[in-house]
C-alpha cells in the first residue's frame, strides 16, 4: 500500500491491531500516545507509525497530530514507535517485514475501512458504504495472523506442536493455516548470546588479573616502605600470623573498596543503557553478591604473597634496614 503526505510517497504495510499488540511485541512508543479505548469502539481514523515512515514522510516536522493518507483513507498520526533494527537477510530469509514501515491502526478501523486485509493493494482499496453492508461476500472478520511470544526459547518447539494440534482440531483437520517459527533467528540469538558471554567473561578475567597484579604491587611497595614498622612490631612481640593478617586485611580492604565502586558503576551503567536504548538490563542480587565475593577473593589471592613476605622476615634485619 502507498502512504502519501505532502506529495511524498512511501510503500507501507498497514496493520490492524488490538490494544496489547505493542506490549506483546515489545514495541515502545517514543512519541505521542497509545490508542484510547474509544478509538476501538468508534473505529476512529487514527494511526501509530513506524520510525521509518516518520523519517521519510515527516522529515522536518512533528508527525503527531498530522494526517497521513493510507490508500484512500486519511489517518491522524497519534504516535510513533521505536526503531527496530532488522537486517535485510532476516527480512528476506525469515519472511519478516520491516516494522519501521508499518502503519498501525485499531483492528475495528481495519475491519470497517479496508477490504481484504490479507491482500491489500492500491487497486483493491475500497471504502465501505456503511457498517451494516451485508451484501459483500468477503470475510471482514478473519484473522490474518496471530503472534505468540515466549519467555524462554526452550519452550518454542513444544508450544508449536500444541498450537498446531489445537488449530487442526478447530479447523476440522483442514490445514488452511501456516505456522512459521523463525528458527534461524532463534539460532542467531543463541549464538550471539554465547559469543557475548564469552567476550564478557574474557574481559572480566583480564580485568581481574590486572586489578590483582595492581593490588599485589601496591602491597609489595607498602611492605618495603614499612620495613622498620614491621621490625618494631616483631621486636615487641608480634607473631608472624599477626603481620600476615595485617597486610592481608589491607589487601582485602583495597579489593573490597574497588569491588563496591565497580558494583555501583555497573548498576548505574545498566540503568543508563536501559534508559538510552531498547536493551533491557537485569541486575540480579546474585550477581551483586557474586561480584562482592570475587572482590574479596582477588584481595586474598594477590595479597597473600606480600603479606607472607612481610611475616617471614627477621626482626633484626628489618630494624637494620635503611
Describe this structure in words.
With 322 residues, this protein is α+β, with helices and mostly antiparallel strands. It folds into 3 domains: 2-145, no CATH class; 148-181, no CATH class; 185-319, no CATH class. The protein contains 11 helices and 8 strands. Strands 1, 2, 3, 4, 5, 6, 7 and 8 form an 8-stranded mixed sheet that branches. The radius of gyration is 33 Å and the shape is elongated. It starts with a strand and ends with a helix. 18% of the residues are buried.
Contiguous helical run count: 11
Structural class comes to: alpha+beta
Rg, Cα atoms, Å: 33 Å
Q: On the 0-100 scale, what is the average pLDDT?
A: 77
- How would a crystallographer describe the biggest sheet? 8 strands, mixed
Q: Order of helices and strands, N to C?
A: EEEHEHEHEEHEHHHHHHH
- Count of extended strands: 8
Apparent shape: elongated
> How much of the sequence is in beta strands?
5-15%
Whole-number total of structural domains:
3
How many angstroms does the end-to-end distance come to?
88 Å
Helix content: 40-55%
Which ranges are low-confidence, i.e. pLDDT below 50, for 5 or more consecutive residues? 116-140
Amino acid at each position: 500500500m502507498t502512504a502519501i503526505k505532502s506529495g511524498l510517497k512511501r510503500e507501507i504495510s498497514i496493520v490492524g491491531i488490538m490494544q496489547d499488540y505493542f506490549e506483546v511485541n515489545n514495541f515502545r512508543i517514543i512519541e505521542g500516545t497509545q490508542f484510547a479505548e474509544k478509538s476501538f469502539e468508534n473505529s476512529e481514523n487514527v494511526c501509530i507509525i513506524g520510525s521509518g515512515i516518520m523519517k521519510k514522510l515527516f522529515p522536518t516536522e512533528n508527525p503527531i497530530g498530522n494526517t497521513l493518507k493510507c490508500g484512500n483513507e486519511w489517518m491522524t498520526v497519534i504516535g510513533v514507535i521505536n526503531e527496530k533494527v532488522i537486517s535485510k537477510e532476516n527480512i528476506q530469509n525469515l519472511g519478516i517485514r520491516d516494522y519501521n514501515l508499518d502503519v498501525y491502526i485499531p483492528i475495528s478501523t481495519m475491519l470497517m475501512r479496508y477490504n481484504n486485509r490479507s491482500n491489500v493493494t492500491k487497486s483493491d482499496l475500497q471504502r465501505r458504504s456503511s457498517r451494516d453492508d451485508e451484501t459483500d461476500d468477503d470475510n471482514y472478520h478473519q484473522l490474518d495472523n496471530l503472534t505468540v511470544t515466549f519467555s524462554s526459547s526452550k519452550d518454542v518447539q513444544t508450544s508449536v506442536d500444541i498450537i498446531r494440534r489445537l488449530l487442526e482440531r478447530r479447523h476440522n483437520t483442514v490445514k488452511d493455516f501456516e505456522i512459521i517459527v523463525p528458527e534461524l533467528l532463534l539460532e542467531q540469538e543463541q549464538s550471539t548470546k554465547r559469543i557475548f558471554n564469552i567476550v564478557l567473561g574474557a574481559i572480566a578475567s583480564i580485568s581481574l588479573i590486572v586489578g590483582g597484579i595492581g593490588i599485589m604491587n601496591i602491597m609489595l611497595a607498602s611492605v618495603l616502605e614499612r620495613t622498620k614498622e614491621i621490625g618494631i612490631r616483631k621486636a615487641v612481640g608480634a607473631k608472624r600470623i599477626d603481620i600476615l593478617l595485617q597486610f592481608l586485611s589491607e589487601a582485602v580492604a583495597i579489593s573490597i573498596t574497588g569491588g563496591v565502586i565497580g558494583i555501583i558503576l555497573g548498576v548505574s551503567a545498566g540503568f543508563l543503557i536501559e534508559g538510552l536504548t531498547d536493551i533491557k538490563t537485569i541486575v540480579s542480587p546474585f550477581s551483586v553478591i557474586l561480584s562482592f565475593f570475587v572482590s574479596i577473593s582477588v584481595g586474598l589471592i594477590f595479597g597473600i604473597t606480600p603479606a607472607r613476605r612481610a611475616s617471614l622476615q627477621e626482626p633484626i634485619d628489618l630494624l637494620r634496614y635503611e
